[in-house]
Amino acid sequence: MKRPIISRAEASRWKPDCDAYFEKYQDGLFDDFNQIQFVLAVEDLHANPNKGELIFGFAGVDGIFFCFLEGKPGVWAYYGIEDEHVLIAPTISDFVAKWEKREIVL
Fold it and tell me: Which residue from 20, 67, 21, 26 is spatially nearest to 47, judged by alpha carbons?
């Protein structure tokens, strides 16, 4: 079951990845070209404790979302159809840079 994350302390299970999110991206990022909020603002973060996910963004296609996984470094894309997580970037900063250059292939 997904539930909102309301504080940085609550998201500490996903350190150190969540630290960079809170330092640089807590206001979220909107992609004008694709018309999607690909990095969510802090009030829209969600956790799925059953899968160890901290969900911070959406791809806007096929139910794919972006998350941090507890105990695993990096940014992961979750493919709901396959029920599979795929590592797509070593850090959220790398993820944002790749997204902005249109280098993320889903």
Answer: 67
Tens-binned pLDDT, residue by residue, of the chain (106 aa): 566 666 788 888 888 888 999 999 999 999 999 899 999 999 999 888 889 999 999 998 888 999 999 999 999 999 999 999 999 999 999 999 999 999 998 8
Q: Which helix (H) or strand (E) holds 100?
A: helix 92-100
Domain ranges of the chain: 3-100
CA distance 3 to 65: 15
The span from the CA of 94 to the CA of 8, in Å, is 21
The DSSP letter of residue 28 is: -
Name the pTM for this structure. 0.90
